[in-house]
Amino acid sequence: xxxxxxxxxxxRLPRHIAVIMDGNGRWAERRRRPRAVGHRAGARxxxxxxxxxxxxxxxxxTLFAFSSENWGRPEEEVGALMKLFLNALExxxxxxxxxxxxxxxxxERERFGETIRKQMDAAExxxxxxxxxxxxxxxxYGGRWDIARxxxxxxxxxxxxxxxxxxxxxxxxxxxxxLADLPPPDLFIRTGGEMRISNFLLWQMAYTELxxxxxxxxxxxxxxxxxxxxxxxxxxxxxxxxxAQIAAPKSETAE
Length: 255
Ligand code: IPE
Ligand code: IPE
Ligand code: MG
Hints:
Helix content is 45%, strand content 14%. By secondary structure, it is an alpha/beta fold. It has one domain: Decaprenyl diphosphate synthase-like (Undecaprenyl pyrophosphate synthetase), CATH 3.40.1180. Helix 5 links the parallel strand 3 (101-106) and strand 4 (133-141). Mean pLDDT is 94; it is low at 1-10. It binds 3-methylbut-3-enyl trihydrogen diphosphate (2 copies) and magnesium ion (MG). Residues 22, 192 line the site of magnesium ion. One 3-methylbut-3-enyl trihydrogen diphosphate (IPE) binds next to strand 2.
């Protein structure tokens, strides 16, 4: 999919936005409140982001909610986050369904308790027929986990005689990572001021445009998201080619 769009005119609106929702803890600490309060405030910002994507006609939104490494946080904070997930799943899915949002989860689901796993399964099944916005929540997710899992799937196919080792290429691995059925993220947004990927979509973001803001996640508003979209619209995505090749009509670059 990335290759197909490589020589196309720059898309003004990203089809797929991937977001690291960072800064909840600092938002709470600045107010001398427990970090869990920040996570609760962050849950409200999730709705701001979803509303924005629905209004603008963005096709896919992938939100990083909890990383593989976040399991290492203090037990109390992990517990508060689990409670919040469960509440959000119970509270929000009806409304998301009503608005035509398809909800899916990526990550190591086995690490969650049974109640959360069941709610995730139910939300996916309930919204499976929707297509207005593809919302993916990355929870217990790590980019390295994703790639390792895809490598294991390749190995299993080879061992079972379904795949020749020579057939393993980027497309074969790319078909086995998470989000393989969506266009790769066009735009990555990270709040909270850190300029890093933190083990998010390592494979999928090879050519994603990166955008950072110092704003903390609970402070997110539509104006900030619009700034990200405006910056994105002004960028030239070259995918390794020259600016002249990108500017030229497709027929000329094909020679
Ligand atoms: C992001 O906010 C939410 C999760 C990682 C679950 P943080 O909790 O990382 O907030 P900061 O970065 O400590 O402020
Ligand atoms: C990334 O934020 C993960 C999520 C937002 C879910 P972190 O706060 O965990 O990342 P680092 O530790 O600053 O790299
Ligand atoms: Mg953080």
